[in-house]
Description:
The protein is 55% helix and 0% strand. It has 98 residues and is mainly alpha-helical. α1 (6-17) packs across α3 and α2 (23-30) packs across α3 (34-47).
Amino acid sequence: MKFASEEIRTKAVHAYLDGKATARQLADILGYTPASICNWVRAYRENQQLSAKPNGHRPSCFSCEEIRELQALLDKNGDMTLQEIKEHFNKSCCLAAI
């Protein structure tokens, strides 16, 4: 998925709201989906926001030191389960985070 700058979003939203183009036309011109254009318009109408939402993942539940320890642990005992790893490091996160 390509990233749309605030400038592109602003132009698209204003063109749509001014009735100069439909969401489909803007999508074809700019190379985004009509759903993206509609999402930008909705976000603008709801809170005047045109910047992208922060993107990324939640922080790791392991520190850099713990990751090194985990690698050494798995080198010795490669068939550990996620539950065993969780218990070894005394983590309270879900197994999917491990």
